């Protein structure tokens, strides 16, 4: 009976270690992806990411309604692949007359 209990505890403990290692690896991978994304964003100021996810670079992104306030506009965008969420900001820099 004691041998069975020790075996059961050993298997349970080993399972916890395996799950813990898997969680740590998953967190590390997420951290690396986020780090890469922040580096890309810092270099590009979202010019390259208006139609692509800054995290996984997927072009399967969905923009919510554009909110316009005075000379500024904002749009929340979500990636359908990795579920990242970011905000695009737009600023009116020029008004050109087309016809009078």
What features would you describe in this structure?
The protein has 100 residues and is α+β, with helices and mostly antiparallel strands. It folds into two domains: 1-44; 49-100. It is 43% helix and 21% strand. The protein contains one helix and four strands. The protein has one helix at 2-44, and strands spanning 61-63, 67-69, 72-79, 85-91. Strands 1, 2, 3 and 4 form a four-stranded antiparallel beta sheet that branches. A hairpin with a 2-residue loop joins strand 2 and strand 3 (72-79). The protein starts with a helix and ends in a 9-residue tail after the last strand. The model has no long low-confidence stretch (mean pLDDT 74).
Tell me about the biggest sheet? 4 strands, antiparallel
Number of strands: 4
* Rg calc: 24 Å
Strand content: 15-25%
Number of helices: 1
- The tally of structural domains comes to 2
SSE series: HEEEE
